[in-house]
Amino acid sequence: MTNALNYQSNSPFLELVDQLLSLFGVFLDTDGASKKTKTEYCSDIRHFLSWVQHEPEFMQNSATTHVELVSGISSQTIEKYKKSLGDLSIPASTINRRLSALRIFFRCSVAYGWIRENPAAFVANIKKPKNYDSPPWTNLENLTPFSEHLSQSGLSKEQIQTHLVNITEFFAWFKKGSIKNI
Question: Which one, 67, 71, 95, 113, has least CB within 10 Å?
Answer without folding.
Answer: 113
